[in-house]
Amino acid sequence: MRCMKRASALLLLAFAGLTAMQALAVAGNKHKEKTTPKDLAPADALFQAGRFAEAQKIYLDIATKNSKDFQAALQLGYIALLSNKLDDAELWLRKALDLKHGNADAKIMLAEALYRKNDFFHAARELNGLGPQDAAKLANYSTLNAAKLESFRDDDPYKLDKAAGESTRLPFIKSVPLPVVNVKINGGPAVAFFIDTGGSELLLDSEFASELKLKSFGSVQGTFSGGQHAEVGNSRIDSLTLGAWTIRNVPIGTLPIRSMSSMFGVEQIDGCIGTNVLYQFLATIDYRSRELILRKKNMGTLKRFESAENNKGTAVPFLIAGDHFMVAWGQANAIPPSLYFADSGLAGAGVKLAESTLKEAGIKLDESKATEGQGGGGALKTIPYTVNQFSVGDITEHNVAGLYDGPFPWENAFGFRLGGMFGNDFLKPYAVTFDFIGMRIIFR
């Protein structure tokens, strides 16, 4: 039995990215070295600065010297989750839970790793034992609703019919202020949904959900532009039709959206396609051709996509924080680079910078042009400004329109700093592909 346990430990550590020698050292170490806060401080500082690869090396070294160090295992799990290396994340987070049973951070991140694998039922089981005292820790994982996830015990979420072709296309019926496409819910008539990577799951208008008599799994408090909050309901639908495809067993959120219809220039807006829907595919928001293109998410499709496009374009690596926040390195004016949230739903501007970024970059708000706007949390005041130069990876735009609508609520929400977000007007000169296998945003 002892030999089997040792072999299992070696296997776990090898899968988690250690060399054989490192794995042997970690598995064989019987707490010979006690880790101190001073030992962890350099890795923690690098993590907080977004220098995850460098932080990972130090955490691995600590884990090698002390296999009983909970914090190193937890952070290695978190870095793997950010990178969407879900098997590694699961292994390290289970290791962390072995060291500290019931730890809320490890349980939530493990549930998120399983959620991204579309293993909803087991994700729900990992949430057992969490209580009201853990609500703040769940704030960035609002899709982890245990009752909704448990309802998928006998159903595969996002199930695509086997006869579906390799891709489907949805033409924009409107492109200003954001792309709008027609979809069908539960086989009903076509309804208008906008596309927004700032959102998580598919979102339905609350009244529309009531008309469909959908089952409610309770609600959570969502965070929106300007730091506003609103209740987001949890439910599921039987099917979502996207062009020629029908996807079955789809989790959804609900929020009053129809009040925003006039802003989109349509008779009625009934919902939103968020990041977690796009995550199921190799997804392209083609602003130039005015269409949403969804391809099956697998290596074969990705290789054919790259071959057909002759590898032209610029790829920008990204990470996923929380339950849907795609973040990539960017730079405003000449200040040091920072991580920025890719929010295609930011309408009427290319960027929205945190107050600290505005100050550091010397950017002034144009108070004379302040207007009233509308966000997911309700009405808000927006003030424009201009960023002389803004870059994401090797993509650079000049005289980028920005807007300020209050505090940027996600600046320090993930344990590392976000400098703001880039949005619709920065993206719209391009066909933007989200590759969740290679973790790249491809600008063409």
Set out the fold topology.
Layout: H1 2-15, H2 20-28, H3 37-48, H4 52-65, H5 70-82, H6 86-99, H7 104-116, H8 120-126, H9 146-150, E1 159-160, E2 167-171, E3 180-185, E4 190-195, E5 202-205, H10 206-211, E6 219-223, E7 229-242, E8 245-255, H11 261-264, E9 269-273, H12 275-278, E10 281-286, E11 291-296, H13 299-308, E12 314-317, E13 319-321, E14 325-332, E15 338-342, E16 351-353, H14 355-361, E17 371-375, E18 378-392, E19 395-404, E20 418-422, H15 424-427, E21 431-435, E22 440-443
Parallel strand pairs: 4-9, 5-8, 15-20
Antiparallel strand pairs: 1-8, 2-11, 3-4, 3-7, 5-9, 6-7, 7-8, 10-11, 10-21, 12-22, 13-14, 14-15, 14-18, 16-20, 17-18, 18-19, 21-22
Helix pairs in contact: 1-2, 2-4, 3-4, 4-5, 5-6, 5-7, 6-7, 7-8
Which characteristics define this entry?
3 domains, 22 strands, disordered N terminus, Cathepsin D, subunit A, domain 1, 444 residues, Serine Threonine Protein Phosphatase 5, Tetratricopeptide repeat, 8-stranded mixed sheet
Structural notes for this entry:
The chain is of the alpha+beta class. The protein has helices spanning 2-15, 20-28, 37-48, 52-65, 70-82, 86-99, 104-116, 120-126, 146-150, 206-211, 261-264, 275-278, 299-308, 355-361, 424-427, and strands spanning 159-160, 167-171, 180-185, 190-195, 202-205, 219-223, 229-242, 245-255, 269-273, 281-286, 291-296, 314-317, 319-321, 325-332, 338-342, 351-353, 371-375, 378-392, 395-404, 418-422, 431-435, 440-443. The chain is globular. It starts with a helix and ends with a strand. The strands form 3 sheets. Strands 13, 14, 15, 16, 17, 18, 19 and 20 form an 8-stranded mixed sheet that branches. A 6-stranded mixed beta barrel has the order 3-4-9-5-8-7. Strands 2-11-10-21-22-12 form a 6-stranded antiparallel sheet, with no helix packed on it.
